[in-house]
Amino acid sequence: MKVELISYTPNPIEAIERAASTCYDSMPTGGKIMRHCYRSGHHSVLEFADFSFKISGVSRALTHQLVRHRIASYAQRSQRYCTEDGFEYVTPRSIAKDEQALARYNETIEVIKKAYEDLLANGVPAEDARMLLPNACCTQICVKMNLRALIHFCNERLCACAQWEIREMARLMVKAVVEVEPALAEFLVPKCEAHAPHSFCTESKSRSCGRHPLIGDVVSKKSN
Length: 224
Ligand SMILES: Cc1cc2nc3c(=O)[nH]c(=O)nc-3n(C[C@H](O)[C@H](O)[C@H](O)COP(=O)(O)OP(=O)(O)OC[C@H]3O[C@@H](n4cnc5c(N)ncnc54)[C@H](O)[C@@H]3O)c2cc1C
Known about the structure:
single chain, alpha+beta, Gyrase A, domain 2, 3 domains, 9 helices, 43% helix, flat, binds flavin-adenine dinucleotide
């Protein structure tokens, strides 16, 4: 998996604070106004900074989940206009670590590859032959999110309940953003840490990773 930050709003915090300052007749403060807006729910100002990523070596299973995030822009490698002969594919760790499962997985992929290529060779258009392609098939996608959407994406997809591949991609997106603007790290967190220092898990007991107390426990302790 490769995640590249291909473009972004220069000085994103200043861009956000410049917009927010219009509301308060103030001047950018180096992060104070932005933090205040974030904490108070004035989130529309976070839309004034954009981040574009190029993502490759991920599965179609991942991108199907990614594009459910509607407040973003996408451009994905087409399986109609590009052919996928000899496609690369993602192998989950749960399969890679089991010799038998891995052999079964690889041999099935090889059968699919052969059938796909046979259909193309017989004149079937790529848009129809692709019906055979697996979720594991690697793809490339460009995604642009503003900071508000990126924070929401991280809240959902850095959570231990998110699927491992999209969680890994979210982690790499955060790494790339924090490299250019370290002060954004505190906002690009799983939802359990979105209200730090008051961290709590909103998942059920059986799904919670245990990193933070369950919201029910926090609330009942406070009301006792
Ligand atoms: C752990 C996990 C498990 C999941 N499991 C499933 C599953 O089993 N099946 C499934 O179908 N999906 C599943 N999803 C996907 C999930 O339901 C969302 O589609 C996805 O996370 C995108 O979230 P979103 O709609 O909040 O984001 P976005 O589409 O980016 O929207 C961001 C925010 O904008 C606002 N918004 C956007 N569009 C509208 C609208 N039309 N009306 C009102 N407000 C809007 C909302 O506040 C929303 O939170 C899962 C997601 C996660 C993280």
